[in-house]
Design goal:
The complex is a heterotrimer of chains A (272), B (330) and C (332).
Chain A: H1 2-6, H2 8-25, H3 27-30, H4 62-98, H5 100-114, H6 118-129, H7 133-160, H8 163-170, H9 175-211, H10 223-230, H11 239-266
Helix pairs in contact in A: 2-4, 2-11, 4-5, 4-7, 4-9, 5-7, 6-7, 7-9, 8-9, 9-10, 9-11, 10-11
Chain B: H1 2-9, E1 13-24, E2 27-39, E3 44-48, H2 55-63, E4 71-80, E5 83-84, H3 90-96, E6 101-104, H4 108-111, H5 118-129, H6 134-147, H7 164-176, E7 182-186, H8 194-211, E8 214-219, H9 222-228, E9 231-236, E10 239-245, H10 246-251, H11 256-264, E11 313-316, E12 319-321
Parallel strand pairs in B: 3-8, 3-9, 6-7, 7-8
Antiparallel strand pairs in B: 1-2, 1-4, 4-5, 9-10, 10-12, 11-12
Chain C: E1 18-31, E2 34-47, E3 51-55, H1 62-69, E4 77-82, E5 85-86, H2 92-101, E6 102-105, H3 119-130, H4 135-148, H5 165-177, E7 183-187, H6 195-212, E8 215-220, H7 223-229, E9 232-237, E10 240-246, H8 247-252, H9 257-265, E11 314-317, E12 320-322, H10 327-330
Parallel strand pairs in C: 3-8, 3-9, 6-7, 7-8
Antiparallel strand pairs in C: 1-2, 1-4, 4-5, 9-10, 10-12, 11-12
Helix pairs in contact in C: 3-4, 3-5, 4-5, 5-6
Classes of the chains: A mainly alpha (272), B alpha/beta (330), C alpha/beta (332).
């Protein structure tokens, strides 16, 4: 943990992330306007004292929409990667530790899921499940889960061969305790990194889905949907599209930096 | 006339005051701290010592295959027949590698390319240095295989089809393919079973004698030194602390570290109640002690040992020792 | 093949002294190409408080044998007797009882300790799992164990990667000793260590044996080490036990052709007495679906047709057993 604090870029990422999360959480308090408050007379106004980031084509305050939009994007990102993480930990350790038929069955199911390219899978699932926040979270979890479970399984299979696992068996440790106490802690750190990267990917994918009309749609604010809406006005009123774009970029960058830092910090074998 | 004699007497390989550092995580690792030794033509020198002493670094420095960004040759000379290898251009070094100097690495598993047949790998080594046709290279490769005791018909087999011992023979065949004058063998038999090791060492000895190759053999096993080497240099913390002929060093180990090593080794022929290990651990190469690097562990250490660097002393002709408390014999 | 028949068990002196007896022990692994005979029909006895060295080259089955003793592998056939009890197929409560008394230390100092547990936690694990001590009692015992194996107790909270190979092996030893076992299987415990550290650990093992009367099965490929530390030795080749005798005698009078070749292959430090080397031809044959009879036959300088029959362990000299039908001709 101390090592994480020493890592400047990871800390920068963490701080940015925390700020973004806080702002989103406090949206109802901070936002000067409602996210759906239409104000046609004031549409397309430039950033000013009244409207920090200006207004969009319906006169809605972009700043408020960014704040509320963050809630959707972050929820999608965090919940889908958490779900995928828990699922991957369970599936990966069971498949990797027990091997044999259990492993075979699980891997064939994952094979089916992974047979489709990631983005295409998300699009298909999203279309099937329909638009909406929770539907999108489910759609994004599944693809992520498949990849993470594979990675977990690989780690588990390697760790299982270590002599300290034999030592635990010789200590009369039962199988579930071996998984819980010896395998999981050692397989965990690559998974944390997977999770942060997965979160970043999910946010991007959600944005893309909204952009093409799936996932989360207006009036629910979501950064990707905002990008989609601002498309037509990119030349005359660029702030409508650039502001959500920058928000996405910052969040994803922060998550990536944090993920990298976590991976380095959690590696017990690094000298310092 | 005098010139000719001088050339004849000149050592085949002479290393002078070689200093090498590695950098890692902003720390400087003092890998080699003034290595000097001499190898005469046709002789085999054993570089003996424990892990981390710097033996492999010496070999890699001679061949100039140290990792580019983390290793620095800070000083010294490596004179091969009078020519300083450290000053040669990379092009010229490439010509020498494989042709004049060849290296055998420790792990036969990773020294061979798994997707090429063994015959091809040997032939490739030959073609790199000699401008001959594919057919001729193949013939020579088959010859090499036979020389190391592998049926020439196995030219088209892949590495995974060979056992550990045979893989190592292939590696040796590759190294000898261009009839190099100097071979650097880094723990060539450590990964092998004892009976296979005997076969491979025997083969190395035979080929070396046939081709009159000079050899530097790196090992931690004094038994191997006794089997194959003419001379031996004991390496500790990047320095040579004792050197001489095998007979001299085995009969009269003079440096406390050498004596300690001999005392730690169980021997088949002798009935020892209890081994006499060397206490403590080797020094951290980032932070070497002042004066003699072995002094913290040495039973004979005095204040004199912890001041200035200790110089090499010639005990008997050819037997050198870096210690200020010399005690002849055991 | 069944071995309930009349094969004599290799016996070390004083059968009331026997703490471990192995009879006809077998381990076959199934592979796509057929059964792999890792351990085949091995029988011997180990004396209480003594060290039985098990020596052989790759593929001889010594590691598998060691793992079978501590139930890390099941047996395909045969029996293991510990203090007179047949522990071969123990499970559940009985197994738990045995596991306190029969322990193991491993070869690789880098993978035998959980990198995320402090050495204190690693040493305590067996105590927490197999005994009913309180937390305080466990802490005291842990310090005791660290002292026994020569690790500074201030290193309690250190992680394995902070220690060198020698210290890590000591931690492994501390862990093995935790429940006060009477028998420890040592699987190549010093092979990965530098020579000077090896000597420290070997001395430690000897000291502990003297003080606590622990019995060792010491598995290694290094003949000098086995000579030094063992009282009796078993020589294995491709899963078969070819020769067993008291340690000194094995080296002075090796009777089996493989043992002779093995001993002659060890590089000698004695530069003035170069003995003749027995050069073996060829390589190890495959342990998968092996033919009956002596597995050393393809490489043996003395082999003939009689060697294709199953070989029996015969007591040629007192307590010196050899599995070779031609042993007398070979040694004339």
């Amino acid at each position: 943990m101390k090592r994480l604090f020493k890592n400047k870029s990871a800390m920068a990422g963490l701080i940015v992330l925390v700020v973004i999360i806080l702002l989103s959480l406090l949206a109802p308090i901070i936002a000067p306007y409602g996210y759906a408050d239409i104000d046609i007379p004031n549409m397309f106004s430039s950033p000013s004292g009244q409207h920090l980031f200006g207004t969009d084509h319906m006169g809605r305050d972009i700043f408020s929409r960014i704040l509320y939009g963050g809630r959707a994007s972050l929820q999608i990102g965090i919940l889908s990667s958490l779900t995928a993480l828990v699922g991957a930990l369970i599936i990966g350790s069971v498949a990797g530790y027990f091997g044999g038929t259990t492993d075979n069955i699980m891997m064939r199911i994952l094979d089916v899921i992974q047979a489709m390219p990631g983005f295409l899978l998300s699009v298909t699932l999203s279309a099937v499940l329909g638009n909406g926040l929770y539907q999108t979270i489910v759609a994004l979890s599944i693809g992520n889960l498949a990849t993470s479970a594979r990675i977990m399984r690989g780690s588990v299979m390697t760790i299982r061969k270590s002599e300290y696992i034999d030592a635990a068996t010789a200590d009369n440790t039962n199988r579930f305790d071996i998984i819980r106490k010896h395998i999981l802690p050692n397989a965990f750190s690559p998974m944390i990194v997977q999770a942060t990267m997965g979160c970043a990917r999910a946010i991007l994918t959600a944005a893309t889905l909204s952009f093409i009309g799936l996932g989360v749609q207006p009036p629910t604010p979501e950064w990707g949907a905002m990008l989609s809406e601002g498309r037509s006005y990119i030349r005359d009123y660029p702030y409508i599209i650039t502001v959500p774009g920058i928000a996405i970029m910052l969040t994803v960058l922060a998550l990536n930096l944090l993920g990298d830092g976590l991976r380095d910090a959690l590696d017990p074998k690094q000298k310092r | 006339m005098a010139n000719e004699k001088a050339i004849m007497d000149a050592p085949f390989l002479e290393v002078r005051d070689l200093v090498v550092e590695y950098t890692s995580d902003e720390e400087v690792i003092h890998a080699l701290n003034g290595i000097s030794f001499v190898l005469r033509k046709g002789r085999t020198l054993g570089l003996a010592g424990e892990t981390g002493a710097g033996k492999t670094t010496i070999a890699k420095s001679i061949l100039r295959i140290l990792p580019e960004r983390s290793a620095f040759i800070k000083g010294g000379e490596v004179l091969l027949e009078g020519q300083d290898l450290l000053k040669l251009s990379e092009d010229k070094m490439q010509k020498l590698r494989g042709e004049k100097i060849a290296m055998i690495f420790q792990d036969p598993m990773t020294a061979l390319n798994p997707v090429l047949t063994v015959g091809k790998q040997i032939a490739e080594a030959i073609k790199l240095h000699y401008n001959i046709r594919k057919k001729e290279a193949k013939e020579q490769a088959i010859q090499m295989l036979e020389m190391v005791g592998i049926n020439g018909e196995r030219f088209g087999d892949y590495p995974h089809q060979f056992s550990g011992g045979m893989k190592q023979r292939v590696v040796i065949a590759m190294a000898l393919a261009c009839r190099p004058e100097l071979i650097l063998a880094d723990e060539p038999t450590t990964a092998l079973d004892v009976t296979i090791q005997m076969q491979v060492l025997d083969m190395i000895r035979r080929l070396r004698d046939e081709l009159n190759t000079s050899m530097i053999l790196i090992t931690h096993d004094f038994g191997v030194v006794a089997e194959v080497c003419d001379d031996v240099a004991v390496v500790y913390a990047g320095e040579i602390i004792e050197s001489g002929s095998v007979e001299e060093i085995f009969d009269n180990p003079s440096h406390p570290y050498t004596q300690g090593l001999f005392g730690s080794i169980p021997r088949i022929g002798m009935d020892i109640e209890r081994l006499s290990p060397i206490s403590g651990l080797p020094p951290n190469p980032v932070n070497l002690p002042k004066g003699c690097y072995f002094s913290p562990r040495c039973p004979k250490a005095t204040d004199e040992c912890k001041g200035d660097p200790i110089a090499m002393v010639e005990l008997t002709p050819g037997h050198f020792c870096r210690c200020c408390h010399i005690e002849e014999g055991r | 093949m069944d071995t309930k028949d009349t094969k004599p068990t290799a016996q070390a002196a004083g059968s009331d002294d026997t703490i471990i007896e192995v009879k006809g022990l077998k381990k076959h692994f199934s592979t796509p190409r057929g059964p792999l005979h890792a351990v085949d029909d091995v029988s011997f006895k180990i004396r209480r408080g003594k060290t039985m060295g098990v020596v052989g080259e790759s593929g001889c089955g010594k590691t598998t044998l060691g793992r079978m003793m501590v139930h890390l592998e099941s047996s395909t056939g045969g029996n293991i007797y510990f203090k007179g009890e047949d522990i071969t197929n123990f499970e559940g409560k009985e197994l738990k009882r045995i596991r306190k008394d029969v322990r193991i230390i491993f070869q690789d100092p880098y993978s035998s300790l959980n990198p995320r547990m402090t050495i204190q936690q690693s040493i305590q694990e067996p105590l927490r799992r197999m005994s009913k001590r309180t937390k305080d009692q466990i802490a005291i015992r842990t310090d005791e164990l660290m002292d026994m194996v020569g690790i500074d107790t201030r290193l309690r909270l250190a992680y394995p990667h902070e220690l060198d190979g020698g210290r890590r092996q000591r931690v492994g030893l501390g862990r093995a000793l935790a429940p006060s076992p009477t028998f420890i299987v040592c699987d190549e415990p010093v092979s990965a260590l530098d020579v000077s550290i090896q000597a420290q650990v070997l001395n430690l093992l000897q000291d502990l044996q003297k003080e606590y009367g622990i019995t060792y099965m010491f598995i290694t490929h290094d003949l000098s080490v086995v000579r030094h530390i063992s009282d009796d030795i078993c020589v294995m080749y491709l899963g078969q036990l070819v020769e067993t005798s008291p340690s000194k005698e094995l080296f002075e009078k090796p009777l089996h052709p493989y043992t002779k070749a093995l001993l002659s292959a060890v590089p000698s430090l004695d530069i003035h007495n170069k003995a003749d080397r027995i050069m073996l031809k060829g390589e190890l044959s495959s342990p998968i679906n092996p033919k009956p009879g002596c597995r050393f036959l393809p490489r043996c300088p003395y082999g003939n047709d009689s060697c294709k029959q199953p070989q029996k362990l015969e007591e040629i000299l007192p307590n010196h057993f050899v599995a070779c039908s031609r042993v007398r001709e070979v040694n004339d």
